[in-house]
Amino acid sequence: MQSKIKDIVDASFKKMVSWREHLHAHPELSFQEVNTSAFVASNLEQLGIPFQNGIAGTGIVALIKGRNPEKRCIALRADMDALPIHEENEVPYKSKKHGVMHACGHDVHTTCLLGAAIVLNQLKNEFEGTIKLIFQPGEEILPGGASLMINAGVLENPKVDKILALHVYPSMDVGKVGFKSGLYMAACDELYLTIKGKGGHAALPNAYNNPVMLISKLLPKLESYLESLSDLTSPYVMAFGKLEADGATNVIPEYSKAAGTLRTMNEQWRSSVHKKLKFFVAEFLTTNNAEGQLEIIKGYPCLNNDEILTDNCIQSAKEYLGSENVELLDVRMTAEDFSFFSQKIPACFFRLGVRNEGLGIVYGVHHPKFDIDKNAIKYGVGLMAYITMNAFN
Q1: What is the strand order of the sheet 51-55 is part of?
Q2: Of 243, 271, 298, which residue constitutes the final position of a domain?
Q3: C-beta of residue 160 within 8 angstroms of C-beta of residue 132
């Protein structure tokens, strides 16, 4: 089976690279992936793979039916959206859309899923069951395309038993992959803090209640308070990356605002902390004769990799790539909306090495010079196909 898969991948590798370069040059932001979706649909048509489009806007679901297609269903997912980043790479496939770039590798994910479709479609007489290909929009912004596709019934008709996905990993050399069984990635929430004080002339301190000073006092207190709530067994991150106060050297504004993120690894603690942080802020504002609120927009849940499925995927990866090319990963405080799938059915989300220092491919995701060694596509496609074939056993 390994030889068959590698032969098919080798025969189609140039086509796959051209797919990735086309997608990279024509990025589209979250929930705007109209041309990307049309590109995927066109290639599925050429492959003779039936599909349904227009799911959650631009999403696509395709089916590859093997022998006895009702026996079980395994899903493979790729996200399609890009980021609002201006690309700084000087390559032939550089983004043609100013200020938009595939800086998180979703062009690679989509290519790998289309490539796996080539392989698995040619091998459909060698497995029992159905493979569901999920091309998902809007991973980068809330509420996340995964949640919308699930609500649209993507895990039904046929009912999905297991789901797999990969993600580029620029910290890892090309040819290697990484796995983490169990709890892997954090839940993420958006924090929006608003304080209404009393504005006025800076020279008359008795006439105003400075919201700039209030927010500067509150933020470290909020951080210390959250630390006091931690049980030390579950990692978390709270960070504010944006501050606003539209005053001047001698003008005290009426409002100050801050925006940040909260990352947690325990769903029960997460829910409890939301309530306690809001109450803490309300008490602080009352004590300081100010108004306002802490708004918490709930984002993606924790990502849990099913232990049995992930262990089986690790074994398949060792068989396909060699044990020396399979690494075990640590917990990450980053978030991914694939977590919605992992909350519903057994899931495995793994990392694909794309780094090549010799070619200067060393930049991380969300960086304007992010790129990949194109050979990562070969490993990603082949391994995804091999893992899928073994998952039917």
Answers
A1: 51-55, 59-65, 130-136, 73-79, 162-173, 347-355, 177-179, 326-328
A2: 298
A3: yes
Give ∠ CA 350-353-359 in degrees, rounded to 5.
165
Which of 234, 268, 298 is a domain's end point? 298
Integer Cα distance of 189 and 335 in angstroms: 10
State whether residue 357 is helix, strand or coil.
helix
**329 and 284 belong to one structural domain:** no
| Same domain? 90 vs 113 | yes
pLDDT band with cut points at 50, 70 and 90 for residue 232: confident
Take residue 343 and report the two structure tokens written for it.
Answer: 């909350």
In 10 A of CB 132, how many CB atoms? Answer: 22
Name the token pair of 383: 């391994």
Name the helix (H) or strand (E) containing 136: strand 130-136
pLDDT tens readout for residues 117-156: 999 999 999 999 999 999 999 999 999 999 999 999 999 9
134 plus 31 within the same structural domain: yes
Beta bridge partners of 352: 168, 177
Task: State the total domains in the chain.
Answer: 2
Nearest to 197 by CA among 242, 234, 251, 236: 251
Catalytic residues: 81, 139
Both 211 and 136 in a single domain?
Answer: no
Do 58 and 152 belong together in one domain? yes
Q: Hey, what are 43's tokens?
A: 């290639």
Instruction: Supply φ then ψ for residue 249, to 5 degrees.
Output: -60, -35
- Take residue 384 and report the two structure tokens written for it: 């995804």
Same domain? For 314 and 387 the reply is yes
Strand pairing of 177-179 and 326-328?
Answer: parallel
CATH of the domain at 279: 3.30.70.360
- Could you tell me where the DSSP H helices lie in the chain? 2-25, 34-47, 106-122, 145-151, 211-229, 267-287, 307-321, 339-342, 375-391
Domain that holds residue 330: 2-184+302-391
pTM, full prediction: 0.94
State whether 265 and 312 are in the same domain.
no
